[in-house]
Amino acid sequence: MKTEGMTEQEINERHAEKMAKKKAARDKMIATKTKEGGLLMVHTGKGKGKTTAAMGLAARAIGTGMKICIVQFVKGAWETGERKVLEHFPEQCVMKAMGEGFTWDTQDRERDVTAAKQAWQYAVDAMNDEQYDMVILDELNIVLRYDYIPLDNVIETLKNKRSDLHVVVTGRNAKEELIEIADTVTEMTQIKHHFRNGFKAQEGIEF
Amino acid sequence: MKTEGMTEQEINERHAEKMAKKKAARDKMIATKTKEGGLLMVHTGKGKGKTTAAMGLAARAIGTGMKICIVQFVKGAWETGERKVLEHFPEQCVMKAMGEGFTWDTQDRERDVTAAKQAWQYAVDAMNDEQYDMVILDELNIVLRYDYIPLDNVIETLKNKRSDLHVVVTGRNAKEELIEIADTVTEMTQIKHHFRNGFKAQEGIEF
Lengths: 207, 207
Prior knowledge:
Chain A is α/β, with parallel strands linked by helices. Chain A has one domain: P-loop containing nucleotide triphosphate hydrolases (Rossmann fold, 3-Layer(aba) Sandwich). The first copy, chain A, has helices at about 10-30, 50-65, 80-85, 105, 110-130, 140-145, 150-160, 175-180, and strands spanning about 40-45, 70, 95, 135-140, 165-170, 185-190.
């Protein structure tokens, strides 16, 4: 807003006018939104925050009384800070870590495929279990990228999920087919990363 | 990976080889990362997940024993689900909501400027308070965009923050000057949004 030469009162008046217009546009937009129901949300991209935002969604869901299930596809071995927080709500949050750590640490494709298949079966059961309002499939995209489980099967299952169930899928390189059927897709883009400045992974930030 | 005509064993062997190379590259990269210390992290962009990822970071930090302070610059009136979860950790998490809701709901610039200045002063005090390991400045970017508080002052303060303090800034349209001094900047890009498909804001997802 160009405010040069304007008095404080003029600035305030112009601001009120501009905001009133914005509010009217927003109210009109919101009035068209009437659908409710389970969403399929995808967090992808190379930036930070994909899993972290899913964990934030988990906290929000728990705070509103939902019951959730988190299936971790590849970070099984990690003890993360948020796990400790979520463990305070055992009645509302079930966490299942099926993976064995990032694949470049195991280097055993056969074992990874077995773990991925088990994790997927567990996820399918959770999505069919009506006690859950939200299921988070953490790092499922990684598993799909390496073809550890059949993409067609995953897409079919997600397409036919219960209409009241929220599903969150995380991981870089989300498949086109998944983006196609999702309700919301957010790409976390890395503009700058502290690793580039020589910082190492620190407790409370990365894990 | 092209696997046509390959046996399962060949696929597994090639995978192990590829992963070993990746791991070597990764280990080499990690060995150069030795710095520790407080980071300035920015979540910006038009997509979902900026505040949610900050809340996830808060949960992670709490889980590792940190003490954090969250200053909400513009969503003061909102009762969010994650607030209820964070309230379980009163010893480790202080939340201060100073704003009066999104500016298009108040349309009173003078009141917004006053609230923003108070919030910023509170934030400065929190950043100087050595009991905190992390301070989250939620939606500070919005306040900066509307020139409610002087950018120079904010940049100077953040540049000279305690070296062991983590600071997280959220909000779309992050200023260039802020991106410049940040350690990590993630842009949440909206590829698809369920509002476009007629879904309304739902409890547990948007608030």
